[in-house]
Specification:
CATH class of the largest domain in chain B: Alpha Beta
CATH superfamily of the largest domain in chain B: P-loop containing nucleotide triphosphate hydrolases
Strand content of chain B: 15-25%
Number of helices of chain A: 20
Oligomer: heterodimer
Largest sheet of chain B: 7 strands, mixed
Strand content of chain A: 15-25%
Number of strands of chain B: 14
Radius of gyration of chain B: 25 Å
Helix content of chain A: 25-40%
Helix content of chain B: 40-55%
Order of helices and strands of chain B: EEHEEEEHEHHHHHHEHEEEHEHEHEHHHH
Strand order of the largest sheet of chain B: 3-4-5-6-2-1-7
Structural class of chain B: alpha/beta
Distance between the termini of chain A: 37 Å
Radius of gyration of chain A: 26 Å
CATH architecture of the largest domain in chain B: 3-Layer(aba) Sandwich
Number of domains of chain B: 2
Shape of chain A: globular
Shape of chain B: globular
Chain lengths: 623, 460
Amino acid sequence: MKTYEYDVVVIGAGHAGCEAALAAARMGCKTACIVLNVDGIGAMSCNPAIGGLAKGHLVKEIDALGGEMAKNIDATGIQFRRLNTSKGPAVWSSRAQADRLLYRLRMKSVLENQQNLDIRQSAVDRLLVEKGRICGVVTSLEEEISCQTVIIVTGTFLNGLIHIGLKNFPAGRMGDAPSRSLPQNLRDLGFRMGRMKTGTTPRLDANSIDYTELEAQYSDTPPNLFSFSSTGEPALEQRPCHITYTNATTHEIIRAGTDRSPMYTGIIEGIGARYCPSIEDKIMRFPEKDRHQIFLEPEGLDTVEIYPNGVPTSLPADVQIAMLRSIKGLENVKIIRPGYAIEYDFVEPTQLTASLETKKIKGLFLAGQINGTSGYEEAAAQGLMAGINAVHYCRAEKPLILDRSQAYIGVLIDDLITLGTKEPYRLFTSRAEYRLLLREDNADLRLTEIGREVGLVDEESFNRFGIKKQAIEAALDFLNSTKVKPTKETNQRLTNHGLAPLKQMVSLADLLRRPEITLKNLAQLSGIELTISPAVLIEVQLTVKYEGYIRRQEEQVARFKKMENVELGADIDYTQLAGLSNEAKEKLNAIQPRSLGHASRISGITPAAISVLQVFLKKEGKI
Amino acid sequence: MSSSSEPTIAAIATPPGPGGIGVIRISGSQALAIATKLFKPAKPAPLQSHQLTYGYIVDPLQYKVVDEVLAVYMQAPRTYTRDDVVEIHCHGSYLILQEVLQLIVATGARLADPGEFTKLAFLNGRIDLTRAEAVMALLDAKTSSALDMARRHLSGRLCSEIQAIAACLVRCRSTIEVAIDFPDEDVEIIQAREMTNQLSQQAITPLQTLITSADRGRLYREGLSVVILGRPNVGKSSLLNSLLGEDRAIVTAVPGTTRDTLEETLAIRGIPIRLTDTAGIRNDAGEVEEIGIQRAHEKLETADVVLLMVDGSQGVTPQDRHLATLTDKPLLYVVNKIDIIDTFSPNSFAAEFPEVPMVSISAKHGQGLEQLQDAFVNLVTDGEEWDPGHNTVPNIRHQAAMQTALEATHRVIEGLAQNLPPDLLAIELQVALDGLGEIIGLTTTEDILDMIFTQFCLGK
């Protein structure tokens, strides 16, 4: 058998690359992380923040599976907030501002100190492929590195092209060289590629900002950290953000500047995201809106740089400064780094399987922005899964595939490989059919056991998880079995609170189901002392209060699983199946769905086509 | 494959059109239980397997006899699907079959999808692959363009009404999703009262109206409203007379309120219809006069189907073309007087209204009337073989789907009143949208996101 220098080679060390490299090394594979610039490991290229809607969910899932992102932000966060607390616990979401420098340095240090992991500064020019399998990479210095698997996590670096006004120049990110040979190599290997665009804001000098009249937004007290293993207070001092708004003058300046905008003069060809429009796009597309919100986010404790969240722009430098100076608090602002747009190549993700391996080349995995996604969290989630699955590939084990009912990670990957994406893909909670089951608070309940099984969750975390799980069961048991009698005292307490008195004996759980009652006032109202630890409070309350809805979603999941568990082989030639329309044949052949359920989500696959597949499977004796 | 958790399914098993009897098939673990609730044997005794029993289908709520029938219970596994099956042999009338099927669905069966019996028969090893594949091939070819077909055959108005309801639900859903997914944005939040008003006016009320209009009983009593539209002397009255002359199922002849309107009640292939002649659209100059258009509009407004009639010997005139634009109802294009044309070329006529099914007749000689009736039945039943699917008026499938949507929308409104968290409201809205989706096609996440990004300026 051939011996390889490495089991896993990871090309790139952004958010996807770090998780991929750490997962592979931690699972015991000999891993190399090849990076253009070692100082860029774990860099936050855009906003200095982690989490937010659906993204916070991803970070918790990564943590439950044994990834690093949650621990890294907990150690380097300078503001922690929980969003949506008034909107139902399924969509509570955590978000944190990071100290940009410390986030990167801590992540770099974690990689540096990881066993089985070599960091090598180099540029990969091409892949070595033998009989449809990856067998190594070649660097720009013509070094050959042999390996069993390669994970490409190059972010915006493939043919990156930065635009500021009518000026443009090749770059992977501001200040870094792009990768030009690798994308050509991928095209030569037969991958379908597309081009996307993203943008970032100028960075401002805090000393030139007048905060006196701006609304401040502080960290929650107490702040909620991301990792299930983090306890207590954040490690760093907490800082506020400030809020300001654009105005009619700002909009006038922007409109006047669009004749030198690369977007509006047609120089940019890549497709941008609708949910992250540049400020010029917002003004042009929504002329009726008289102001747009801007969050002034601190970039760190020891820097004056401010990230004005809300004004990504590729307008010329003089328009950028003029527009900013029309905004309240920014009248004398100085720009440290200009905002810019960047175009880059991506690989159409329908060419991947659910393990993130390419269908074309065995042992080659792709993760992050190269798959058409945007966002650190989306990248990290894919990186983690690609890392795990590269290891499974090396060991000839079944890939780890999370489905849409298990995790947002499953929703993300299933969407990408099934539907592809036309714009940089971002996760929204509305993309999840079983949103009520996929919560931040239960990410550990959903995924810790899986993380333990693949070997990424350590003993201590797993034991802590076991204790939490038991506590939840005990609390639920207590609530269901403890009865409240309709005594005078109890009913008096209820009516004093404006609540209907009891007519008969009920369980504590029944009482908790009333909309006005929470675990906070349940003990007081029922007169029964509760023995529920604060750690499991949310989980228990939710399970009881939304039992009906949760049961409904669980029934839907059961139906979903039934279809999901009927496997379709990867070697089916759908053109040979009588009864399928040509459109169905073409799409099924292109996607090669892994299951009947997966097939049903491909656009244009009708229920009748699914019937044909059932008939086929029956004929083959597979069901 | 089969188990008691599988739903029991039902459908009309005989093709639509003339026929002495029509058969409804129920298959599944609940088949016998459902049949027992509706079928009352003439001599009270339990149904014996594989024996034909004479009796009545009785509407259990109204204690009304719906039809005199023969029922046969076939115990698994010696059945077509290898599950328990009950077949009910009714009189062939399309509307009686619909009414019985509706009762069966109300008693707990699910409407079978097209081809579902055949699929079950194959999966349960009852029929061989060749036969199953033939059926499936036919089905997929049909349903690949199912949405287009549904849109074409569903009356333009019904379809657009449901789309408008769905649009209201999508708007509400996107408002909720924006509130959830973009909490830090400077956009409007959910206004419970406004959303309640929108849902009441734009979803609840129209859904209730549509569900009522789908009542088969009403249709049975009143019949489908069919209007013959055409210039003077294209042969409208002749057609009316031919149809009346040929069809013996005349119930009454009701003269119109004015001398220039005539309404007849008759049945085409068992489907009761009220046929209205628009004799009013004429004046001496041969142009379409204002008052005529107005009258036509009134009649067309209440029509379920419109027969657009032209004089084949004169070709299609600008006035004919103008008449065709007066309605968005399902059209049947009738070319008359082919007996007096030297060389009739159907293609040149068909090209005039390419989207509309065409028949050529001679009303005077009774020529082509069979084809006209076939085309008519095809139009109102969508030519569905297993289940008269997409109709010009809401059918049972539509009605059930709209009922689901209505109930879920009520729950959204209740939820808004109770301050239910938005993620739960979103679940109910999706149930409502999925219901309507069975009629007009599914609302996907992408549709919601499209609406969000068109309506709201988002993104930091």
